[in-house]
Design a protein that fits this description.
Layout (H helix, E strand, L loop, with lengths): L1 H5 L10 H12 L10 H36 L4 H4 L4 H21 L3 H18 L12 H28 L8 H21 L4 H6 L5 H5 L1 H24 L4 H23 L6 H21 L5
Helix pairs in contact: 2-3, 2-7, 2-13, 3-5, 3-6, 3-7, 5-6, 6-7, 7-8, 8-11, 8-13, 11-12, 12-13
Protein name: Homogentisate phytyltransferase 1
Length: 301
């Protein structure tokens, strides 16, 4: 787990606990009644944490292997860039992590997890590996956003949701309103994250020929688009909450998301786009807001 504690990949937050909390939240989405909340469900949720962490390790490791030369300019503190890990150790983690995750999916007898991990592996490789014109999605703004949406959003939601609903609880697959909203929220929010994450890396990316969105459109425009997208996601949540038949769900959803939108707007006003530390602080802040939504999603009923 040394890699997991040190790694700070370009496409993920700095540690695994928020993603584990999100996984626990997803495990509760298929519940139809309090009777479904059993010790078996809790045990299965903890079992799923291990392969999820392995896939997170894989995404971070392959990203740093492919980007070690760029990270020495943009992020010299990363394990490979600063020499804490050798290239051989990074390669070993990159190969072993997805193999272990897929093996655990097979042990859990879960086709949705196995398929999800394989797709995760393919998308992560396509994003990082430099084999143009088909791969190296990182250099294409559209495909970079698709990668972030997939690996930090949809692949965290659907394979695990189906696993718990069908494999653990034995129910037919049915996508409820909270699940569909979570999917829409993930698409919008992760696209915004994909835009923001490249803002502090403009100099290094430009030096190595990458055509990221901040390089094409400029930092100010990309930042403005990202903030508006996130505010739009909160606006959608308020609108969905307004039509909830439950007074409690209506109040929590509308007041909670309005408050989060205000906090986001205030924080965005303080950012200096030409100070990389300021932008990086905002980047980590919006990741925190992203994972807070996994609490509120249970009130969207």
């Amino acid at each position: 787990m040394a890699w997991q504690t040190k790694v700070r990949a370009r496409s993920a937050p700095s540690d695994a606990p928020p993603k584990i909390a999100a996984l626990l939240s997803v495990s509760l989405l298929p519940l139809q009644s309090p009777a479904d909340f059993t010790p078996k469900l809790i045990i299965e949720a903890f079992k799923c944490m291990v392969p999820a962490i392995m896939m997170n390790n894989y995404a971070n490791a392959i990203n740093q292997l492919a980007d070690v030369h760029i990270d020495k300019v943009n992020k010299p503190h990363l394990p490979l860039a600063c020499g804490d890990f050798s290239m051989g150790e990074g390669l070993a983690i990159t190969i072993a992590s997805p193999l272990m995750a897929v093996a655990m999916g097979i042990m859990l007898r879960s086709p949705p997890l196995v398929i999800g991990f394989i797709i995760w592996c393919i998308v992560g490789g396509a994003y990082s590996i430099d084999l143009p014109p088909l791969l190296r999605w990182k250099g294409n703004p559209l495909m970079a956003a698709v990668t972030i949406i997939s690996m930090n959003g949809l692949l965290l939601l659907f394979p695990f949701f189906i696993h718990f609903q069908k494999i653990v609880l034995g129910n037919p697959v049915a996508f409820t309103k909270p699940v569909l909203f979570t999917a829409a929220y993930m698409v919008i929010w992760n696209a915004a994250i994909a835009f923001v994450k490249d803002i502090p890396d403009v100099e290094g990316d430009k030096a190595f020929g990458l055509r990221t969105l901040p390089i094409i459109l400029g930092k100010e425009k990309v930042f403005s688009i990202a903030v508006k997208m996130m505010l739009m996601a909160y606006g959608g949540a308020v609108l969905v909450g307004a039509f909830s038949p439950s007074v409690l769900c209506k109040l929590v959803t509308m007041i909670g998301h309005s408050a989060l939108a205000f906090v986001l707007w205030r924080q965005a006003k303080t950012i200096d786009l030409f100070d990389n530390k300021s932008v990086q602080s905002f980047y980590l802040f919006i990741w925190k807001l992203y994972y807070v939504e996994f609490l509120f999603v249970h009130f969207l009923r």
